[in-house]
Amino acid sequence: MGITTKVIIPNQPERGQGYNPFAGVDRQKLSVLLDWVKLDVKWRQKVAGSSSFWFYTLLTPKEWLNDTHLEWFRSDIICMMDDVFTQMWTAKYSEFLDSPANPDGSACWISIPRRHIVIWDSDVVYTKDEEIAKTVKPIAHMLSYMLHMLSPGEDRELYTVDFTHERVSQSRVPQNKQSGDCRVYFVKYIECHALGMPFPSHDMCDKNIKTIRSQMATEIFVETNINGTEKRLYKHLNVYD
């Protein structure tokens, strides 16, 4: 799975009221972003690894997002696992079951109390249910194993069986019909769920993907003061706490 999320605070309808994830792009903010990108003298050359190329990828329809784009969506509601952690976790999992690398992915809502994984797929017809089951098995098994080992003795028996899973039907999840924007859809699935709102198919669609990408890029740039590939420092987070 390309993106893994965990619910920290139960999803409530009243959360996030006042913010519309499909409000459209603020043209003034977009102009500020584009002016900043052009400060890079090599921005037209699209140099891989540069901040200007990072934003170019995020802004451009059909350009595949990478894991560094997804890691900026931090909040008190969802935990986004860093790419380094998920890579190490997958590598360690080879001691249990084979989990070959997969460039595709889906957004997952993992409910620990229910021991259940809900999968939101932007192209349901692309992958068979059997393939989804095989792909999600490492996560379903590892989560149960991890909770079993970390739980106090009296609770360990609650986590002796793999997490169950379901993939939501395409009639309930907006579908990405043009190739290249699936990860944008994944982020929007997670964002809507965190805000306690349904997935609006009339807003979340390929026709609006340029506007959706522009809104995402400008909000990351303006609201978080993150400049693309700039190194992040989370002084308040200690990995050993």
TrEMBL record:
It holds the Pfam family Peptidase_C48. GO terms for biological process: proteolysis. One of its GO terms (molecular function) is cysteine-type peptidase activity. Residues 1-193 form the Ubiquitin-like protease family profile domain. Keywords: Hydrolase, Protease. It comes from the Eukaryota. Signal peptide: none annotated. Belongs to the peptidase C48 family. This is Ubiquitin-like protease family profile domain-containing protein. It comes from Brassica cretica (Mustard).
